[in-house]
């Protein structure tokens, strides 16, 4: 049996203080038919006013597209979850709406574990997963489990602003990992940690990364670079937190349209789809030093508020202790409905859904890039077509702005001028500076700025209009 290394030395003082809840420990007897359970404040399920919840969804293999409306039995999945006597593999409402099951309901955990084994093939044995209410909550729980106020954490040079705010509110400090078009640069991070000044405090024990379809840059770390980063983690002995809500929004490579409409990509087999996915950090994690944050938010719906953490069992136990006195468990309705859907689709049907998403996002990404080519002057800008995620970025040379000198050669003033002009023209893209990591020794902004847009939130006609208006604003600002 291959076991993970012991990383309990990285636990925060708060995590070390957490003891198992005596009340929660009694729940192991809840389903014992020989025990009359009088120990918990559990309302009788007879008084739950929900006898049945029904949802209608498209059915695999989604031959009419994942956005096709269910019309008849042949292309409809009916999820009908009952309070009692639920179908095999479902989570009954009497169970899901009750207290308990902090880790998540066994039926859903079993599906997610099978899914994880299928996709990632984790190279050690004592790993597991627990449900969460999404990756934002997972990240908050991770910080509380491994960090003390005043600690440093490593984050990407530009990253998800809410992740930064979560850490800032816990009085943490940041080390910005330099990036290029392929994400974090391993040699640069190695150099920072090798030259770490002990006067700043202890070295960081966490690297937070959004490695696939990164928010905001849209970059994705290639497999070989992930392996290099893992070696840096081993050398400097820190944990990697891979936040992967966009992992299954990986796309076919961008091919210029040359003015002609492109056909949708040919459907992939399950084997081809899985082989095409970039290698995850947890699939190369021989030590058990990777904590993977997964979510249904971007592949089913954000409002289900249902995610899961994959990690070695010893570390997950600390998360469970935290969840027992915070979230308690993920929503029962969400667990019942999502598991009901996955139970009917099966692993193969869920892969069909993810393959369908790949096709849809490839089309939207291609459309967005083609619109940028048509509407944003290449003489003052450049872009890198994303291979995953929901976001695209357009970079601008601030030195070519006519008021660059008048602005005191301040790139942020050029950025704000473009932002305000785009709003006047009726388009909103987010300035890249809003995502800048506030590291103590962060380099100043250089000659290039960027704006982040998304191709996921609006129909194609609105996407084209928004990029056209943004291009018009850029032309006005640069006098083109």
From TrEMBL:
<dbReference type="InterPro" id="IPR015421">
    <property type="entry name" value="PyrdxlP-dep_Trfase_major"/>
</dbReference>
<keyword id="KW-0663">Pyridoxal phosphate</keyword>
<dbReference type="GO" id="GO:0008793">
    <property type="term" value="F:aromatic-amino-acid transaminase activity"/>
</dbReference>
<dbReference type="InterPro" id="IPR015424">
    <property type="entry name" value="PyrdxlP-dep_Trfase"/>
</dbReference>
<keyword id="KW-0963">Cytoplasm</keyword>
<comment type="similarity">
    <text>Belongs to the class-I pyridoxal-phosphate-dependent aminotransferase family.</text>
</comment>
<dbReference type="InterPro" id="IPR004839">
    <property type="entry name" value="Aminotransferase_I/II_large"/>
</dbReference>
<feature type="domain" description="Aminotransferase class I/classII large">
    <location>
        <begin position="72"/>
        <end position="468"/>
    </location>
</feature>
<keyword id="KW-0032">Aminotransferase</keyword>
<dbReference type="InterPro" id="IPR050859">
    <property type="entry name" value="Class-I_PLP-dep_aminotransf"/>
</dbReference>
<dbReference type="GO" id="GO:0047536">
    <property type="term" value="F:2-aminoadipate transaminase activity"/>
</dbReference>
<dbReference type="GO" id="GO:0006571">
    <property type="term" value="P:tyrosine biosynthetic process"/>
</dbReference>
<dbReference type="GO" id="GO:0005737">
    <property type="term" value="C:cytoplasm"/>
</dbReference>
<dbReference type="GO" id="GO:0019878">
    <property type="term" value="P:lysine biosynthetic process via aminoadipic acid"/>
</dbReference>
<dbReference type="GO" id="GO:0009074">
    <property type="term" value="P:aromatic amino acid family catabolic process"/>
</dbReference>
<keyword id="KW-0808">Transferase</keyword>
<dbReference type="Pfam" id="PF00155">
    <property type="entry name" value="Aminotran_1_2"/>
</dbReference>
<dbReference type="GO" id="GO:0030170">
    <property type="term" value="F:pyridoxal phosphate binding"/>
</dbReference>
<dbReference type="GO" id="GO:0009094">
    <property type="term" value="P:L-phenylalanine biosynthetic process"/>
</dbReference>
<protein>
    <recommendedName>
        <fullName>aromatic-amino-acid transaminase</fullName>
        <ecNumber>2.6.1.57</ecNumber>
    </recommendedName>
</protein>
